[in-house]
Write a structure and sequence with these properties.
alpha/beta, globular, 11 helices, 18 strands
């Protein structure tokens, strides 16, 4: 997400936020006067969650196989211009795949793409292409995320170019110790309104996406496009932010996504389009987004808790995961679209309850989503997945588990028990199309058994391929610690 420094130095935290939990909760969920941050929580989904995810469709590939994406955000926020994307390396994708991950959400920035109106930087497009080539080399699927943090450079961040920032001379005060509060500065809120409402800015945003889609439509690594990161909007007098968020999502984000979908489709008819609600969904508030007029839409919310964002431990008694799951599945069940969580993960993964958090979060995500991208793939402290030596930071190793990258049929059940180290997959094989189901295994010893009319073959890269007879039923069991060699045998 935002406010991040990519570093290879030990114990230097990569920070998504520097806010206090009280400030974020206040900013997200309380009644507000115009341009003031709220002070009391309300309108949060009940903690006793209803059963969810049963009617959420799955993401599919070109062969009709049901996909599961497991991976991380890949970014370089520290460099721009001639140095843009220099912190992203081929090793990032090699390491992702070596740990069993098949997915990356790659952050790109409109201010780097189009520094002047109508001038698109060819060297930046080439740099993006080089990163995508690395991803393809290691068979990592990529979603290109056109990212913004606090709108963009006009406010000291990255995203929408300064030339596309209109504030009506409203005030802006930086909050170095509470950057999320900057979203509630009058100038920033007005800039979002102009982006959504001004015809020339609408056209400029659509052209930028058409340039990206035209350039990368045929790239083998590109799965889809995340149209804007964590969009926000302007509060009206007397609105609480939960109500304002639903209005912005309904009246401004939904038509924006329809416009951008049309622009992308003029260049790329096949990619998935990832659409995000406002960040308010993180507190268990259902989105106000309407139906997007496109057949290949993915709902892509983020999964953050305000207290954990500020460095607090996970509170199992809070009911937060259950409330989030209940709220976030309403939109995909209503409109029949798959879910991929675009960002998630706590600031401090070493606290006492974080082992339980990762196990419960992974189980929840598996119930309703087609995958996720953790935040963020780097070496260092804070949100980094790895420490300076390249090992997982505490408890983040729990994100690396067996899963089915692509299932040639309909998944009946799929679950991994982290305590026993057993993954079970049951599916009905497709009658047409691909017969090959692909499994991803993290490093370690794994034994695979298959029941049904199917055979299994392992490779040296930690994957297995199950080839089945059409129209049958197959059960796959993967067990940790019983294989004969380093990656295991079938």
């Amino acid at each position: 997400m935002r406010g991040t420094v990519h570093t290879d130095e030990p114990e230097v935290p990569v920070l998504r936020t520097t806010v206090t939990a009280g400030a974020v909760v206040a900013a997200l969920l309380a009644p507000a006067a115009p341009h003031a941050r709220p002070t009391a929580r309300q309108d949060v989904a009940p903690a006793a969650a209803r059963p969810s995810g049963q009617d959420v469709p799955r993401l599919t590939d070109r062969y009709g196989r049901e996909l599961t994406l497991r991976g991380w955000n890949v970014e370089d926020k520290a460099h721009r211009g001639d140095e843009a994307l220099t912190a992203v390396t081929e090793a990032d994708f090699r390491e992702l795949r070596s740990h069993g991950f098949d997915f990356a959400r790659l952050l790109v920035f409109w201010d780097d793409l189009e520094p002047r109106p109508g001038h698109y930087r060819e060297d930046y497009l080439r740099r993006i292409g080089r990163v995508l080539d690395w991803a393809a080399r290691y068979d990592v699927r990529v979603v290109l995320d056109l990212h913004q943090d606090v709108f963009g450079p006009a406010f000291g961040h990255r995203g929408i170019p300064a030339w596309a920032t209109r504030t009506d001379a409203l005030p802006f005060t930086a909050h170095p110790d509470d950057w999320f509060a900057e979203y509630f500065e009058p100038a920033v809120q007005r800039a979002f309104t102009h982006l959504y409402e001004d015809q020339d800015l609408r056209r400029a945003q659509a052209r930028a996406w058409r340039v990206l889609a035209a350039r990368f439509a045929r790239h083998p690594a590109v799965l889809g496009y995340d149209l804007i990161n964590e969009p926000m909007g302007e509060l009206r007098p007397g609105e609480d932010l939960a109500g304002a968020a639903r209005r912005v999502e309904r009246d401004q984000l939904t038509p924006m996504y329809d416009r951008l979908a049309d622009s992308v489709r003029s260049a790329d008819p096949d990619a998935w389009l990832f659409v995000e609600p406002t960040p308010v969904v993180g507190e268990g508030v259902p989105t106000g987004l309407g139906r997007i007029d496109d057949p290949r839409v993915v709902y892509a919310p983020h999964f953050y808790n305000t207290a954990m964002e500020a460095g607090a431990d996970y509170d199992p008694a809070s009911g937060w995961i259950a409330a989030y799951e209940a709220a976030v599945t309403r939109y995909p069940e209503q409109y029949g679209v798959p879910v991929v969580i675009g960002e998630w993960g706590p600031l401090n993964s070493a606290l006492p309850n974080m082992n339980r958090f990762y196990r419960e979060a992974m189980a929840s995500l598996a119930r309703y989503s087609s995958g996720w991208a953790g935040y963020v793939w780097c070496r260092g402290g804070g949100y980094c997945a790895l420490d300076a030596t390249g090992n997982f930071r505490p408890n983040k190793e729990l994100t690396a588990e067996p899963y089915a990258e692509a299932v040639a049929g309909r998944v009946r059940s799929a679950a991994y028990d982290a305590l026993s180290g057993v993954y079970r997959l049951t599916y009905t094989t497709a009658r047409r199309g691909s017969r090959v189901t692909e499994l991803s295994l993290p490093p370690g010893r794994w034994r695979i058994t298959v029941r049904g009319k199917a055979t299994v073959r392992r490779d040296s890269a930690g994957r297995a391929r199950v080839t089945a007879v059409p129209g049958g039923r197959v059960s796959v069991t993967v067990v940790r610690g019983t294989a004969a060699d380093g990656r295991g045998g079938s």
